[in-house]
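User: Show me a protein chain along with its predicted structure.
Assistant: Here is one chain, sequence first, then structure tokens.
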Amino acid sequence: MEYILAPSILGADFTRLGEEIKTVAEAGAEYIHLDVMDGAFVPSISFGMPVIQAVRKATDKIFDVHMMVEEPGRYITDMKNAGADLICVHAEACCHLDRTLHQIKEAGLKAGAALNPATPVEVLEYVLPLTDMVLVMSVNPGFGGQKFIPYATEKVKKLRAMMEDRGLSADIQVDGGVTLENAKELLEAGANILVAGSAVFKNDAAANVAEFLKIFREFQGR
């Protein structure tokens, strides 16, 4: 299993966003996590296609677009054209989740399904085979810098067990309150992609990426 760090640009300095993305990419982050918020599904409004298209020039790393918007299927083609490689949609935001996941796959992109903290993993039972990744939210979505919700770890364990029972090997991503202190616990639970915003971009971003990657190497080498 490959362990991947996905720095969330919500934690970056937007006055020098391209430079910040280049820094974490060159330090070894394989994914760049882009949180798109519409002010309806979540309280905040972040950014959309023009920003993604602009920063696409900064790196060739995987653009992991987390759609925190109502009925995200409306924007699949536009997100692809802006430079998305993976689109993750919320089960709670899709009236027809199966259809939306198929739309993403038909666009030639990787498909992810996200779950809010209070949403049980069983919601994905019938669509798990369609997913390349499942995102377990460990904070309530909409704002960066929130405190990690502990029961998210148990959800990761349950989800990984569900996948293994069915012979599936999709990635499990965790987003929200991820730090160097709880990273190992999440990997042990079955996650293999960690999203971190402030824990990466605060102070020395390159050094913070290196510390996360060190944990990944130590975990993989056990």
